[in-house]
Amino acid sequence: MQVGLKIWRYDAKTGDRALKEYEITAPEEATLLDCLDIVKDRHDGSLAYRKSCRMMICGSCGMRMDGGAVLACKTRMYEIAQAGHVPVISAMGNLPIVKDLVVDMEPFWQKMRAVDPYLRPRYDQAQERENVVSQPQMDVIHKESLCINCGCCVSECNSMESDPDFLGPAALAKGMRFVGDPRDGATIERLERYSEPHGLWDCTRCYFCNERCPKGVDPRDAIAKLGAEAMKNGIDRDMGARHAKWFVTSAKTTGWLRETELVPKTQGIIASIKEVKFAMGLAVKGKVPPPFPPHVAADVHESRALFDLVKAQGRDGAAGIVQGERALGRIEAHHEAAGGRDPYNEPDSAPRPFLPSEREESEGVAAT
Amino acid sequence: MKKVAYYKGCLASLSAKELDISTRALAPKVGYELLELESVTCCGAGDIHEAEPDYYLHLNARILSYAEATGCDTLMTVCNVCTLNLRQANYQLQIDTGLRERVNDNLEQVGVPRYLGTVEVKHFLWLIAGESFAELQAVAHKGLKGLKVAPFYGCQILRPSKLMGFDDPDKPTSLERIIEACGGEAIDYPAKIKCCGFPIIQAREDTALAELIQPIEQAKEAGADAMVTPCPLCHLSLDAWQSKLKKKTGKDFQMPILHLSQLVGVAAGLTDSELKFRRHVVSVAPVVEKLSV
């Protein structure tokens, strides 16, 4: 097939920048990475990009196609070429470009190092017996463990674009990988550190990281899990945490958000006095609803009772989010089954594998 | 007239009443009778999802249950954040029957009907850009007279796309189609799918403002007369925080920001009392003047 590519060429040493167009012949199964190899081998040997495994494991070939971060080795070109589209290929965002499609990953690794991306065991001497971690315990950090450090999430992070010091989705997801690990002994210390400025409460919930991650890590969900674990452990001094707490208070007292009190509850009385002039400007337009009498939802006693009931059941912290992942994990399977081929439903196909949760259920049944 | 359960959420009940009023006025014109849910609460806005995730799930299940009790198959939202929270909880409850049983047992204990999972959560944008697009075209007769409108989607109506799925998350078209159906000209600019900064506007104002300035500045440079958004949180930051942008950067954009229901409402001939433009912080007068000529 004929594939057209427009590639942003850049040289950090000279500052030269140019959008160059290439027209190549490639096999129909070619990925973007295969196409770049063809460009480099047969058309322009000066093109710079990173690659290694070619099979979505090493995380080297993160780059942007039409402005969105992708793994070049995961991106098939057939449909794009068939549609006659010539995509624009450029280096990832939020990281300095060294040359063409190669970025300097040092800021990425710096943040990764800042979260202590290794197990800090509960014990300081070798144990006599092996530490066995159950499947349900590992399920808590399953998605976070899939990260290949490609940087696609960091490339698109809206908060980091505005605050380069933000720890960002990859490092925080890595942090959750250890906060959620039952063998790790530094949970509180980690949560304290990740809750500092430029940490977990700086996430703007734009969900670009979940959208772009080629491995299904869902870093935004990992950040929410860290927030939940921090709250569970009483680490809630940050304004972001206080903001979140006020929503809970609102829901169980009046049902609706008590908007007018949100600023003092988040920022504190002293800081919010500075906001008085701004608030007056909004009040003139009816944007500051009076706190009294409060706007109370009908039957709000039900949501109060629900809160007490749910709290007594002990699914605090990340467990409350993890319980929903079984369903979210199946969304893709559900969509594929609806629109595409089901590889386990064909003659001579391999037996359908169990999901971990199903296996537990079936083994549980077998045991009883 | 199709009956839909209507969940207006916190902002449309409080600081963004103009969104509720214009939605109620517009909905019957495009074929919807709104059944408002009275005994429902806040969806949690991502904050309760983070602070008390299990409570988040139950709060949203309760809303879905009351929507189901109306007999409608659609729960209509007018806010991106409500849409994501409700759709996420709905997927989890629909697909994971074990989880639904547990949540239902709890709902039942406090007197809420069990949720069977029959409701679909849809944003008003998806209804009028989708199944009711013909009705929209029919009522938008008064037209926007070539008004240049910059669509601003906001985050949580596009991403995560596996939960949303109406628009292409990178190349959405629903707002553009609506603007054009109403006789306006849709302005294209890169930041239309990015974040307005609202979730951290109180805790991290500098970061939030640096996010917020991008869409407004780009829309202004592209020649937009106004911006439109389907989310009252985006609306609040784009509209009310322009004064803070001015203070911080010296740039006074004076960019009118319209709720989706107001933009379509103008084209469909809604009255002043149904549009409530006077509740906006940045004056919408230049837009009104342009359209009345």
Word description of this protein:
The complex is a heterodimer of chains A (368) and B (293). In chain A, 44% of the residues lie in helices and 9% in strands. Chain A is of the alpha+beta class and 368 residues long. Chain A has 3 domains: 2-102, Beta-grasp domain (Ubiquitin-like (UB roll), Roll); 104-124 and 135-233, Fumarate Reductase Iron-sulfur Protein, Chain B, domain 2 (Orthogonal Bundle); 239-318, no CATH class. Chain A has a 5-stranded mixed β-sheet with strand order 2-1-5-3-4. In chain A, strands 6-7 form a two-stranded antiparallel ribbon. In chain A, strand 6 and strand 7 form a beta hairpin. Chain A is globular. With 293 residues, chain B is of the alpha/beta class. Chain B has 2 domains: 2-124, Glutathione S-transferase Yfyf (Class Pi), Chain A, domain 2 (Up-down Bundle), CATH 1.20.1050; 133-292, Rossmann fold (3-Layer(aba) Sandwich), CATH 3.40.50. Helices cover 48% and strands 11% of the residues of chain B. Chain B is built from 15 helices and 8 strands. Chain B has helices at 9-13, 17-26, 47-51, 53-69, 80-95, 97-109, 124-129, 133-139, 174-181, 205-221, 232-240, 242-249, 260-267, 272-275, 285-292; strands at 2-7, 32-36, 74-77, 120-123, 148-151, 185-186, 226-229, 257-259. In chain B, helix 4 packs across helix 5 (80-95) and helix 5 crosses helix 6 (97-109). The longest helix of chain B is centred in the N-terminal third of the chain and has 17 residues, at 53-69. The relative contact order of chain B is 0.14. The model of chain B has no long low-confidence stretch (mean pLDDT 96). Chains A and B meet through helix 6, helix 9, helix 10, helix 11 and helix 12 of A and helix 1, helix 3, helix 4, helix 5 and helix 6 of B.
